[in-house]
């Protein structure tokens, strides 16, 4: 039986159960699932003593898709013995039976789980983010001791992780929020891992996580991102960038299809070709596969029978909400999130279908001749590349701003490196980002690094042609066009923000600064319209 210094009241003391349940898709989905007390477990021996001896160096709680694959990954690495526990015992039993080679140490109570682990105990939680995470933390805090380590590998909101870390730290137990990317396959074969938490936990956890992470160019895709919620923050932005990347690819496909009339299978060839160049990435690779797929039932391209309403689990929205709070324009990511929202309002789309578009007489009929098709497709490729640079630049900007706001020291180049393998946005391109930060660690805007300046210069004309062609033809390309606007906004000598300041001063006396002298000013708009010095009210 574990000696439980934390006592049964520790869970209440840790105060981890202030659930924000920020995973919209997860809310209460498991309310009907059995509670821990319902789960059948071996009867403890007389006197309440557990017969369990410690034999595992790492444990996993939560054995759905991600947890079971991560447990198998851990078990496959030299020197690891893995204890496993799941709220409902059937998943534990099934995993043990299905994978005898893993030699798992199954536990059917939190007490036995704790007892099966060597000290300091280390356990990775892989459960539904939100209430499930808090429930498991509360249970583990009751059976763990000071110095032990609880890792949350789920998709938690970073502010929840900050709260949980603070509460758990008060018990003397370490809490680490670790973003894990790569889905089911990544969890099994090697994910990209973004752990936060204390330096002390990293000493124990680092070697374990390095052993299971993906390897990119000889380096494990894991780094100690920063303290408390830093890991989940970076994982959140990773997902935001993923949204933007996917939307940009989707816009590229749509333009090529509607412009050239090529079939999905033919466009698959285009993407496969792109995957051999500077756009090489997992997302481009799988796009080719999806476009090549034929629906067995109808014989049609699968993409044509899939309902065109994109879902979301909420991490893209978190990235945008956080960026708004930080005042960081992540317009590419925001447009990607909104594009999914727009697609998922069939009632609005139905009543809007007959809204006027460009008239045939405007000469904007869209159609690329066969001989122009190759040039057009190359324009789309360059527009995609330029917009992608913008999306990543915006994402890294958000990480920089988040680090400043929350007091984390985050090595941006190291983040680019750990995204090169295991995760959904893995790409060659990330080497260029780590090079840029290696050259200039405090680079204020990623896209001003020499490599990207050259690439953006090369893409300029194509990018503009594609955005204007899409607008003239009435084809939505929100991520392409917002990326270009962001780019032009950054490079503008002067912005109409001056006029906005004038308007704000007119209706709200919000004051303004001048370009020619120090101070803060207000014009007496409803008086004689003279200018006075004023308090800075912003
Ligand atoms: N799926 C992915 O591709 C992916 C990728 C990266 C990260 N993630 C994150 O990884 C985590 C696990 O994902 P998943 O897809 O494997 O599983 P999931 O469907 O998100 O969650 C199911 C697991 O959570 C457990 N659970 C739920 N509420 C619980 C509670 N109150 N107490 C104890 N256990 C509870 C379930 O136990 P029962 O079996 O008893 O119901 C089950 O083991 C999530 O946070 C997810 O966001 C997922």
UniProtKB/TrEMBL annotation:
Compositional bias per record (Basic and acidic residues), positions renumbered to this chain: 16-31
Matching InterPro entries: 6-PGluconate_DH-like_C_sf (IPR008927), 6PGD_dom2 (IPR013328), 6PGDH_C (IPR006114), 6PGDH_Gnd/GntZ (IPR006113), 6PGDH_NADP-bd (IPR006115), NAD(P)-bd_dom_sf (IPR036291), Pgluconate_DH (IPR006183)
Pathway(s) served: Carbohydrate degradation; pentose phosphate pathway; D-ribulose 5-phosphate from D-glucose 6-phosphate (oxidative stage): step 3/3
GO molecular function: NADP binding; phosphogluconate dehydrogenase (decarboxylating) activity
Family of the protein in this entry: Belongs to the 6-phosphogluconate dehydrogenase family.
Pfam hit, one: NAD_binding_2
Superkingdom field: Bacteria
GO annotation terms (biological process): D-gluconate metabolic process; pentose-phosphate shunt
Keyword set, alphabetical order: Gluconate utilization, NADP, Oxidoreductase, Pentose shunt
Span of domain 6-phosphogluconate dehydrogenase C-terminal: 231-526
Keyword Ribonucleoprotein: no
Location of the region described as Disordered in the Swiss-Prot/TrEMBL record: 1-55
Protein name, entry field: 6-phosphogluconate dehydrogenase, decarboxylating
Compositionally skewed regions (Polar residues) per UniProt: 1-15
Organism: Microbacterium pygmaeum
EC number, as in UniProt: 1.1.1.44
Catalytic activity: 6-phospho-D-gluconate + NADP(+) = D-ribulose 5-phosphate + CO2 + NADPH
